[in-house]
Amino acid sequence: MFFDILTLFPEMFKGPFSESIIKRARKNDIIDIKMINIRDFAEDKHNTADDAPYGGGAGMVMKAGPIYRAWENAQNERSQNSKTILMSPQGERLNQKMVNELSREAGLTIICGHYEGIDERIRDSIVDQEISIGDYVLTGGELPAMILVDSISRLINGVLGDADSCKKDSFYNGLLEHPHYTRPRKLRGLKVPDVLLSGNHQKIERWRKKESLKRTFERRKDLLEAKKLSDEEKELLAEIKSELKGEVDE
Ligand code: 9D3
User: Fold this and answer.
1) How much is the pTM?
2) Residue 177 C-alpha to ligand 1 middle, in angstroms?
3) Alpha helices in 57-112 (DSSP H)
């Protein structure tokens, strides 16, 4: 899969895209990420990419011309079509379902706004989808674009190593994760739950599923309500509820 990222600040992407899993996936040519500097497509001698808003007011607006030319150039350099995404506070809020759907595209062209906004005609002419990462105000679309690329990339075949790849289609899908422990067995008076050292894999699986359900029940009732529970899960949840009421003593 390829990602063409149109931005005024391509340097911002260097760190996150040059480490760990994304670094390896790029090196292995599983994903192809290109940062394109919108300023390179300005046409005046000062390489102006923004301007004051028509109608007046504070702040600057990103000019349509440089973005449009950068986009056209990016499209021409790829043999496959891509979907054009604008990172924007007014977009649809990103969630895992959108990430899953976008991971089936051949490529994405991602436009990052900075400053107050971009000339509306970019939306009208080339943007297919507008995405926000949540209801808080950032300084630009660059960090959201990194989050989008990261979340999609880990779903592409070959990006996660064998050890990580089971985390894609987790057994605990739709639930929060159970607690994890590693050595030592005792730390500052805190012990690892005995069941994890028992060697009884059936019991361990049941314990993990129960902890996963408990955590989701306590922290994210919304996730639990959205999930269709199996008979085993219903049984575990009933246990959890009665334990939390203090009706069962361990
Ligand atoms: C006062 C109006 N502001 C909208 C809330 C203007 C404005 C602020 C910050 C316009 C753009 C930005 C920069 N943010 C993004 O480009 C952005 C963003 C975000 O701020 N939060 C969550 N998701 C995203 S995606 C792009």
Assistant:
1) 0.95
2) 31
3) 64-76, 96-102
